[in-house]
Amino acid sequence: MELGSREKAILALERRGFTGPGAKERAIREELGLAPVRYYQLLNALLDDERALALDPVTVNRLRRIREARRSER
Fold first, then answer.
1. What pTM value is reported for the model?
2. What is the dihedral of CA 39, 50, 68, 10, to 10 degrees?
3. Which of 19, 38, 42, 48 is most buried, most CB within 10 Å of its CB?
């Protein structure tokens, strides 16, 4: 089964670079219609989804490394 359009949009947003504070959160609200907290919940679940890894391995692996680094800092 393939990822849905919302999941693909989340990965596409993560591939983009954002300049300045609040730009990413604004894009999350305007483009996806999600609260940032909900977005990050969905993103975290998506990082554990093998379909996401198959679709965009570079982005998913980069985000997994960031997540692991943050977990190890705690």
1. 0.89
2. -20
3. 42
Q: What is the DSSP letter of 28?
A: I
Write the single-letter amino acid at 4: G
In 1-74, alpha helices (H):
5-15, 23-27, 36-47, 50-55, 57-73
Residue owning tokens 């993560």? 14
Residue type, 39: Y
Q: Please write the tens of the pLDDT for every residue from 1-56.
A: 899 999 999 999 999 988 888 999 999 999 999 999 999 999 999 999 999 999 99
Residue labelled with tokens 């359009």: 5
The amino acid that residue 67 corresponds to is R
Tell me the one-letter amino acid at 60.
V
